[in-house]
Specification:
Layout lengths: L22 E3 L4 E7 L3 H6 L15 E6 L5 E9 L3 E7 L3 H9 L8 E4 L5 E6 L14 E3 L3 E4 L5 E6 L1 H14 L3 E3 L1 H10 L36 H9 L5 E8 L11 E4 L5 E11 L2 E9 L8 E3 L6 E4 L1
Parallel strand pairs: 1-11
Antiparallel strand pairs: 1-7, 2-5, 2-6, 3-4, 4-5, 7-10, 8-9, 9-10, 12-15, 12-17, 13-14, 13-16, 14-15, 16-17
Length: 314
Amino acid sequence: MLEDRTDHTNAFSEPNALALSKKIFASTGLSLIEVIGQDAAKLLQGQLTCNINDLMASQASIAGFCNAKGRVISTLLVVKSPASFYLILPADLLDTVLKKLRMYVLRADATLQDQTGNMRILGISGFAPEIDAPTGNFAVGQIPLTTIKLPGAPRYLTLGTPDQIDEFAGLLSSRYEFEYGCLDEWRYQDISTALPWFDINQSEQHIPQMLGIDQLGGISFSKGCYTGQEIVARSHYLGKVKRALFIAECQPSASGVVNGCKVLDGISQQSMGCVLANSVWSGINRALVVLQIVDGLPKNLILDDDYRTPIAII
């Protein structure tokens, strides 16, 4: 559970914990980039908010990849393998991240490869897939495949080739009773644990602290320079972060909630922020919203949609 940012927020608190049934998710909405070469660590150290040099085979990290103004192009889950680094990120942002990261390679001995077609990312929820499964946030195990523990209730990402994943799923089916889940449910679980994945519409809109990346241990304030570092550090040390991430719910509307939709004060109609990501599951629309925190949150929040849909922080 992450600490409150102000007296007005209960974001990420225990009532949001999921009671998960045993499920496997063949689709997680995520893609994978592999960074190979002697300068792979140096390249990533100069671009991502986390400290690449602190990563171990047993510990991954969430990170932000920022532009020069400190706005997050994409959030990433960075995993160190014996010969390379894996970058796990929303599939919607794969091409954008590849294009922008390759601009910084120059003469470095580093190659970025889209491995989405060669590697599969399996989602597991509601149970630990083996007795020695990793337990800490973003801890990594080999059980027998690379498996990353996600924050909150038992949830994991497992990486492998299609054949390895099929074999692993067969192994799980021989040991556990589980169901197969869908992409909407997996995204709902991500949102319920405040994992700040987002799509292209919200790229380059927020600094890392507004997305809770610091709360998840994904920002190093001592590692030195990286693209956008000056803005990120200044916001941290001068206390100028004016927005924060919250988990919210609203009734699903006929037209659906659009990521990027404004969130308004229901009384003054003043813009308070926007929807970062949302997913509907079991008749509930759960969303991550980035909201102003300077003067506290109003009690009556609505979406700036045709229905003026009420939305509540949970």
